[in-house]
Amino acid sequence: MTVALPAELNYHQRQELTRDFVQDQFVDQGMIADIGYHDFNSHNPHAHIMLTMRSVDQEGFGKKKRAWNQRTAIAAHRQAWAEHSNQALEQAGYAE
């Protein structure tokens, strides 16, 4: 998954936004996530979020969770990203 980071936010705010989103949407569900940040100082700041399709618990890796890769889940993640981004912008003092 690739997410566009709001250019209005500073470096720390972009990282915090992305980490909070990943924690809420993926890690709390049992996924392992890796975030790659790109072009932080350009007109196109964005992040790549790489995810497992297997749950992880005290026993180790579980079976693949195919529901995590369904179109409805992806649409929900996109909506959640919009909500997280808007909240971060609001907290940073942006009204639009």
Which consecutive residue ranges, at least 5 long each, have pLDDT under 50?
none
Strand order of the largest sheet: 1-3-2
Mean pLDDT score: 91
**SSE succession:** EHEEEEH
Topology:
Layout: E1 2-4, H1 11-25, E2 33-38, E3 46-51, E4 54-57, E5 60-64, H2 71-91
Helix pairs in contact: 1-2
Structural overview:
It is a single chain. The chain is of the alpha+beta class and 96 residues long. Helix content is 38%, strand content 25%. The chain is built from 2 helices and 5 strands; from the N terminus they run βαββββα. The protein has helices spanning 11-25, 71-91; strands spanning 2-4, 33-38, 46-51, 54-57, 60-64. The strands form 2 sheets. The chain has a 3-stranded antiparallel sheet with strand order 1-3-2, covered by helices on one side. Helix 1 runs antiparallel to helix 2 (71-91). The longest helix has 21 residues, at 71-91. The radius of gyration is 14 Å and the shape is elongated.
List keywords for this structure.
96 residues, alpha+beta, two-stranded antiparallel ribbon, 2 helices, 38% helix
